[in-house]
Amino acid sequence: MNETAAPSSFRLSPVTRALGAEVHDLDLNAPLTPETRAELRTALRDHLVLFFRGQHLDDEAHLALARCFGEPEVHPIRGALGDPSVLQDIVDTPDSVPDRDGWHTDVTYMERPPAAAVLRCEKAPESGGDTLWANMHLAYERLSPGMQRYIGELSGFHATDARFVDYIRRHLPADACEKVMEAVGSGSSHPLVRTHPVTGRKALFVDRSFMVRIEGLPRQESDYLHRFLADRADDVSIQCRFRWNPGDVAVWDEPATQHSGAADHRGSERVMRRCTVAGERPR
User: Fold this and answer.
1) What is the rounded average pLDDT of the residues 38-56?
2) Is 171 a catalytic residue?
3) Which CATH superfamily does the domain covering 11-277 fall into?
């Protein structure tokens, strides 16, 4: 694999032509200099997903890495239940059914979805359990100019009464579900095409997991266009895939990507720990 021009603090190896880069020669357990932090922000801007092998971070180092990209935030479910911790465990056991597959950008039902996420692997299955990312800049740019103009005037509603509420009902008691739904509300409206707050580049902002309709269109037209646009993430030429080992870390740009966990490790334990970084209202 060819390496990109190396910044001063580390080396980068692209994962695919579309997105993703592995970061070499950087110890995330050591204090990060201001220069290294700036270089990581540039690398994320250019590659959208960064991978770090064998780091074995503790919580302090995890949050230090997250702060390179902004302010870590409390997940809305935790916040609704009065838990102020910004780190969240994602656990699959041998007895549970993995249920985090499906392309999405995190918590788009909120007014201000995250700017970035940092995920580390504590335990990995012997096989399966990969995570995939899709470059939604490319998903937008490969649409025809006419389609780009048309959807550029439209917004979608990202709701909590569909997949989100199904998820919390599986994992929380009824009284806790009620608290969560009251705190997060019914959802948020966001443009189908958002402009990246750092680069100004446009990206398709449509998924199957949280967006439920395109506003201002009849239901049949909304459903048809929604399916068509959401399917753009399935294009393997705009994707990268990462096989986890314990100690690995990934950082990704939320506005520019979607991700999906491969739910192909049923019967195996998989333990991840994640935080997100506060973002802006999509525009």
Assistant:
1) 98
2) no
3) Clavaminate synthase-like (3.60.130.10)
